[in-house]
Amino acid sequence: MSKWTIVKTMAVATAAVSLAGAASAQTRGVTASEVTFGMHTDLSGVAATYGVSSSNGVKMRFDEINDAGGINGRKLKVIIEDQGYQVPKAVQACNKLINRDKVFAFVAPLGTPMNNACFKDQFAVGVPNLFPLSAARSMYEPYERLKFYGAASYVDQVRSGIDYFVKTKGKKAVCVMYQDTDFGKEVLEGAELQTKKLGIKIAETTAHKPTDQDFTAPITKLRSAGCDLIVMGTIVRDSIVPYTTARKAGWTDVDFLGSAAVYDLVVGAAQGMEGFYGMGLTEMPYVDSNVASVKKFVEDYKKKFNVDPNIGAVYGYVAADLAVQGVKNAGKDLTLDSFIKGMEAIKNYKDIFNGPQVSFGPNIRQGANSSFLAEVKNGKWTRVTEPLGF
């Protein structure tokens, strides 16, 4: 081999290495040693109990991966921004994460309107939205290759619950009490779809503002309509007050059913909530859980953060773990395209909390659509059924 041939060969090899390095450098949020995720959430507002715990869950899972050496030599980093559960602040937080921090993807961002407000800008620059803490259908519809959502929507949950109560418990007069918000209207739509499918009509509806304090009038209206099942498009306080109001008034021949938005430690532990129903996605993180993996998670979380986890911590941990699966599946050459393919390769994923099996594919962005029925018994949520469909 001539000297010129050797020099030429070395030059080609050097150029190839340079091109590979340049290609790697073009993937935002990815270096040879690190992958940077972003998370906009509520650390100071009305949903801070979810925002703080879910961000802890994300950090906990990423720390476990990093302590074990990372993925293909890369450690996982998350930059968390407080949006106070306010759309304007969420837009500011997203702009920082996108333009200044140049994150690879968002993981477990909180809130329906906050996610919706950020989609346009983040998708324009290729930032995936991974497993938001919102069960609105807009988290996976319309189809967008950068959207991934892992569980049943509010509509799915409500449809499963109504189907169970009508077919199993013989309920005939289904009513709906809902927040006059996008969230509440999704629950209403789920009830409308399922009652129509079952050939029955919704007997009555009432709407309220999230800030309303007195529910005597709507409870009286629903009772007068003869409701035997009230589907709740509510969250925490506006679930507790109407339910206890009805029971104190002696209205006991009616069941109340909420979406996963009511499946919360605070709701379960509140005085007077015995017999209240909600749709669950995973086991509740109780310290005395009979599920060994859940019990260990609770112990590890409390040791790490010096506080008990709530359901938000579970959702954050699962979101981070699903993101981890995508990074692993992408291989050493982590790019946006390889990551999308890595996410689409997730099949029959099971979390440590007895959640539903999650699978994605080239055109599948909702990983599961089943949920189970849970009931408050002795101040705790107790699972009543296996995962339900509709």
TrEMBL record:
What the entry lists under Gene3D superfamilies is as follows: 3.40.50.2300
Limits of the Leucine-binding protein domain = 34-379
The family database entries (CDD domains) matched by this protein are listed as: PBP1_ABC_ligand_binding-like
Per UniProt, the keywords (alphabetical) are: Signal
Residue span of the signal peptide, if any?
1-25
Record-linked InterPro entries: Leu-bd, Peripla_BP_I
PANTHER family referenced in this protein's UniProt entry, alphabetically = BLR6548 PROTEIN
Recorded family membership: Belongs to the leucine-binding protein family.
Protein's name in the database: Leucine-binding protein domain-containing protein
Q: Which organism is it from?
A: Reyranella soli
